[in-house]
């Protein structure tokens, strides 16, 4: 099956080239004309209805005079409105709450009285094929509507404007042979899965009393339902499922869906490590860990992975979507989206309350981020820790946010495992057919407190009185199957005993279990490793390119197709680039970047860049996408290169979601340079959870390497508090154990080399780059052609632009970023011959060794100054202070400590006044050089 005929997704086929058409194009459902009368669910014009009913009466042999025909057509009109009302609102009267605490009175418009049929159950009306009926009594029709729309499954789908999708769901929900039906064998399989889920939780509760497990108790129907996703998904083309979920039920899913050996989980419960002791890392609590496995149903193998996640409940969602997108690209599945399925398991309070959920739903139809539909499964405990729904959201259901992308929603009673399994079966068929998100909202309950150690009756005494006496899912279902004659009495007890005996054997085996290998460098990561010597591993990388490739890329980057009418300013930009390649001089930041991208693509790597303005560049510097000024068709020069693949996307206005997505993409594909670019560096604040919980610590916690690159515009040019600082200090505070790389680069060629280095090494580490703003066009921030070729490579420290004999240097000013050019220009104006400016291009891992070598050559050095634009409590000062001292000591300059020159401590990262900024900037440059300088909020610790 596939979604090739569906027009909601503007992306279909977009991998063959850039999206074409005008910039105002919207997803199709926004402008689609909905043919709602085609299925007779909206009232027809009376004249039309008379014609329809007259033909139906004639065909059925009914004799109707004019008066009778008028009444019959009116009756049919009202009957169809009754049908439509149930299709729109029937879920409001569905039997969803297993505890019966949620009182769901039948709205008047779902009664016969509400439509003028009170006491007319025997009235025969024509309904045009609804439920297979032609002519039917109102009583029969009403019973069918109540049975279908107000049973243990409530369907919300009439908010979908696409008629084909609506009819698809309608037919499968209303046609008798498509309703909830399973064979006897299927029912026994569902019962067995429920029992495994229940007994597993019970076993853990007895063996590890008081230990947190965030059990699935009360929601065990999810286990057979997820197995249905694997089974029916496999039948419809799914070959890989990527799961993301928080704590609730995670251990149960790991064991009973993912197939993680019980003995391994028991080993972890007993305090054992998930990986060999010599691997290192911090590890993580057992209900954060992921795993991967293969399962087979009906002869079809499906690979499954559960992505590890932190305690931020929905933070894993975009990571799963990004990983799914990457796997679809790897499997050449970006057109059909059939083979790789993302499945996200949510809690009700989190789904309604966490904004990242909407950010991820928003990806569902966006080019470059769409994954062909995600299956969302909400474990609706009807409580969030201790918070009742009335305090957790403003909408009737936690799933209401999904209506924003017209996703259908299946509400289902968790005490009916057949209904939950049916919902998943329908959901996977819908997703595989239309490539759209769909939500299953399983109403259940949480049998114990939030983490088994809590006392829930402190806050919900009445609910927990009901829960304590409420029978388990397996008890209810096994009794039902006994009554149906599917199983004999005692059958369920036998399954329980058999499974518990198996758990006892696994429990005993856990005592001797020891992990023999770490789960990380396999599959597409084969050939990658953890660097044994971080210092040499970073240094010994050849990143230069040869002249032939350099010149070829120059032609690609400056050649304008004959059918493209470019903007006149872009024409001047391209003319300037031509001059660069002709003269071999003056290469700017954007050109160096394009050379890095193009050379990597030519060498067979993928390059993926996303951000809110990445096609053009926030500062009109990149111009990776050229737009025709007459019809807006797009041309992307780097996509014309052979071997690899270049992608650039202007992303949704989301930092949290998009950065998580790109992290997930990089997690799956180490052979692509994956970059996220902030519009301004401080926008990374909106994605801090991803930075803290995944980028900085994912490898230590979960043994998951990642090569994601963050491009964060940073620099003080008088643009105020919000657009000056990318919060360099926050990233440096996160640095430890060789976890990430942080750079503040000052030359285009050095930027070129660091991007290429990121891909040409045999390991991956996240790379954070403080990218420039004013340096994008600064006359001194240029590189020559020779710097991209020969034996040139990334320089962790860069020397002064002016040649000064090291032995003459008395004052060394160390800095990072654009302030270096301010310092060099002012130093040269003042004709200072004994002051050297050295730039620290890579702040972490700190280049202590090359700095020490440089310091050792400065025989007459008297003072080391650290100069920065950021306030003293921001920037790099508190990070580099002791590291510079250690380098000085290694250089034989024991006792020589750096002093600080820069802005005073400040609560706001920068002044909001351009004039004040300029005065401060001039003063801090002067005092760093030992010249007279004074301004408010600027200081020097140097004597």
From TrEMBL:
<feature type="compositionally biased region" description="Polar residues">
    <location>
        <begin position="17"/>
        <end position="28"/>
    </location>
</feature>
<dbReference type="Pfam" id="PF16870">
    <property type="entry name" value="OxoGdeHyase_C"/>
</dbReference>
<dbReference type="InterPro" id="IPR031717">
    <property type="entry name" value="ODO-1/KGD_C"/>
</dbReference>
<protein>
    <recommendedName>
        <fullName>2-oxoglutarate dehydrogenase E1 component</fullName>
        <ecNumber>1.2.4.2</ecNumber>
    </recommendedName>
</protein>
<dbReference type="InterPro" id="IPR005475">
    <property type="entry name" value="Transketolase-like_Pyr-bd"/>
</dbReference>
<dbReference type="Pfam" id="PF02779">
    <property type="entry name" value="Transket_pyr"/>
</dbReference>
<keyword id="KW-0786">Thiamine pyrophosphate</keyword>
<dbReference type="InterPro" id="IPR001017">
    <property type="entry name" value="DH_E1"/>
</dbReference>
<comment type="function">
    <text>E1 component of the 2-oxoglutarate dehydrogenase (OGDH) complex which catalyzes the decarboxylation of 2-oxoglutarate, the first step in the conversion of 2-oxoglutarate to succinyl-CoA and CO(2).</text>
</comment>
<comment type="subunit">
    <text>Homodimer. Part of the 2-oxoglutarate dehydrogenase (OGDH) complex composed of E1 (2-oxoglutarate dehydrogenase), E2 (dihydrolipoamide succinyltransferase) and E3 (dihydrolipoamide dehydrogenase); the complex contains multiple copies of the three enzymatic components (E1, E2 and E3).</text>
</comment>
<dbReference type="InterPro" id="IPR042179">
    <property type="entry name" value="KGD_C_sf"/>
</dbReference>
<keyword id="KW-0560">Oxidoreductase</keyword>
<dbReference type="InterPro" id="IPR011603">
    <property type="entry name" value="2oxoglutarate_DH_E1"/>
</dbReference>
<dbReference type="InterPro" id="IPR029061">
    <property type="entry name" value="THDP-binding"/>
</dbReference>
<dbReference type="Pfam" id="PF00676">
    <property type="entry name" value="E1_dh"/>
</dbReference>
<feature type="region of interest" description="Disordered">
    <location>
        <begin position="1"/>
        <end position="28"/>
    </location>
</feature>
<feature type="domain" description="Transketolase-like pyrimidine-binding">
    <location>
        <begin position="587"/>
        <end position="778"/>
    </location>
</feature>
<dbReference type="GO" id="GO:0004591">
    <property type="term" value="F:oxoglutarate dehydrogenase (succinyl-transferring) activity"/>
</dbReference>
């Amino acid at each position: 099956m596939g979604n090739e005929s569906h027009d909601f997704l503007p992306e279909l086929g977009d991998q063959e080239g850039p999206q074409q058409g005008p910039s105002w194009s919207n997803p199709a459902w926004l402008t689609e004309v909905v043919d709602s009368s085609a299925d007779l669910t909206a009232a027809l014009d009376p004249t039309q209805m008379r014609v329809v009913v007259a033909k139906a009466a004639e065909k059925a042999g009914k004799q109707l005079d004019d008066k009778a025909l008028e009444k019959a057509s009116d009756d049919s009109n009202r009957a169809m409105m009754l049908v439509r009302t149930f299709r729109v609102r029937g879920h409001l009267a569905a039997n969803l709450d297993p505890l019966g605490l949620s009182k769901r009175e039948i709205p008047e418009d779902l009664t016969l009285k509400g439509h003028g049929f009170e006491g007319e159950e025997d009235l025969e009306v024509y309904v045009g094929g609804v439920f297979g009926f032609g002519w039917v009594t109102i009583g029969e029709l009403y019973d069918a509507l109540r049975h279908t729309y107000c049973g243990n499954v409530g369907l919300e789908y009439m908010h979908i404007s696409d008629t084909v999708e609506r009819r698809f769901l309608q037919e499968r929900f209303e046609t008798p042979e498509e309703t909830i039906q399973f064979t006897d064998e299927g029912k026994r399989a569902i019962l067995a899965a429920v029992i495994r889920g229940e007994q597993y939780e019970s076993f853990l509760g007895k063996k590890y009393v008081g230990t947190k497990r965030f059990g699935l108790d009360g929601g065990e129907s999810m286990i057979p339902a997820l197995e249905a996703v694997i089974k029916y998904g496999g039948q419809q083309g799914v070959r890989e499922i990527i799961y993301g979920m928080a704590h609730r039920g995670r251990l149960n899913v790991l064991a009973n869906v993912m197939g993680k050996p019980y003995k391994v989980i028991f080993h972890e419960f007993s305090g054992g490590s998930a990986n060999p002791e010599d691997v290192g890392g911090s590890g993580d609590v057992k209900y954060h860990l992921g795993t991967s496995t293969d399962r087979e149903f009906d002869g079809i193998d499906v690979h499954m992975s559960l992505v590890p996640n932190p305690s931020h409940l929905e933070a894993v969602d975009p990571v799963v979507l990004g990983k799914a997108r990457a796997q679809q690209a790897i499997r050449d599945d970006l057109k059909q989206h059939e083979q790789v399925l993302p499945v996200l398991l949510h809690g009700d309070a989190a789904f309604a309350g966490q904004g990242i959920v909407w950010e991820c739903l928003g990806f569902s139809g966006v080019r470059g981020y769409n994954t062909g539909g995600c299956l969302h499964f909400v474990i609706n405990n009807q409580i969030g820790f201790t918070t009742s729904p009335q305090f957790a959201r403003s909408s009737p259901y936690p799933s209401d946010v999904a209506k924003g992308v017209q996703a259908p929603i299946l509400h289902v009673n968790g005490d009916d495992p057949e209904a939950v399994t049916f919902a998943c079966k329908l959901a996977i068929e819908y997703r595989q057919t239309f490539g759209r998100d769909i939500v299953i909202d399983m109403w259940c309950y949480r049998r114990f407190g939030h983490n088994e150690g809590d006392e829930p009756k402190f806050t919900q005494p009445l609910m927990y009185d009901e829960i304590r006496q409420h029978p388990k899912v397996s008890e209810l279902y096994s009794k039902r199957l006994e009554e149906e004659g599917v199983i004999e009495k005692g059958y369920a007890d036998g399954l329980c005993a058999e499974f518990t005996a198996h758990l006892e054997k696994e429990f005993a085996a856990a005592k001797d279990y020891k992990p023999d290998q770490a789960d990380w460098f396999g599959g597409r990561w084969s050939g990658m490793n953890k660097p044994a010597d971080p210092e040499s591993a970073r240094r010994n990388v050849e990143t230069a390119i040869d002249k032939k490739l350099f010149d070829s890329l120059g032609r690609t980057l400056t050649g304008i197709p004959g059918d493209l009418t470019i903007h006149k300013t872009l024409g001047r930009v391209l003319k300037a680039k031509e001059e660069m390649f002709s003269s071999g001089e003056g290469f700017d930041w954007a050109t160096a970047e394009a050379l890095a991208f193009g050379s990597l693509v030519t060498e067979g790597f993928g390059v993926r860049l996303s951000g809110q303005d990445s096609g053009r560049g926030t500062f009109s510097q990149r111009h990776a996408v050229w737009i025709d000024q007459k019809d807006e068709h797009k041309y992307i020069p780097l996509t014309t290169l052979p071997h690899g693949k270049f992608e650039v996307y202007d992303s949704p206005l989301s930092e949290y979601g998009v950065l998580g997505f790109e992290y997930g993409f990089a997690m799956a594909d180490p052979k692509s340079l994956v970059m996220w670019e902030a519009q301004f560096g401080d926008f990374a604040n909106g994605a801090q959870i991803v930075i803290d919980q995944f980028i900085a610590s994912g490898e230590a916690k979960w043994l998951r390497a990642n090569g994601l690159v963050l491009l964060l515009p940073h620099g003080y040019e008088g643009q105020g508090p919000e657009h000056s600082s990318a919060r360099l200090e926050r990233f440096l505070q996160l640095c430890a154990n060789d976890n990430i790389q942080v750079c503040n680069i000052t030359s285009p060629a050095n930027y070129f080399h660091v991007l290429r280095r990121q891909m040409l090494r045999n390991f991956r580490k996240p790379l954070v780059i403080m990218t420039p703003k004013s340096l994008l066009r600064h006359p001194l921030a240029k590189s020559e052609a020779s710097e991209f070729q020969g034996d040139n490579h990334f320089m962790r420290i860069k020397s002064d632009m002016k040649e000064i004999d090291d032995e003459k240097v008395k004052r060394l000013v160390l800095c990072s970023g654009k302030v270096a050019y301010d310092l060099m220009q002012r130093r040269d104006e003042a004709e200072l011959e004994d002051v050297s400016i050295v730039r620290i291009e890579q702040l972490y891992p700190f280049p202590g060794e090359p700095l020490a070598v440089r310091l050792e050559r400065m025989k007459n050095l008297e003072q080391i100054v650290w100069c920065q634009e950021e306030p003293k409590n921001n920037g790099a000062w508190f990070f580099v202070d002791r590291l510079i001292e250690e380098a000085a000591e290694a250089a034989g300059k024991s006792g020589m400590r750096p002093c600080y020159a820069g802005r005073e401590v400040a609560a706001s990262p920068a002044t909001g006044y351009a004039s004040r900024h300029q005065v401060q900037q001039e003063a801090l440059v002067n005092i760093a050089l030992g010249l007279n300088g004074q301004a408010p909020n600027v200081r020097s610790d140097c004597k």
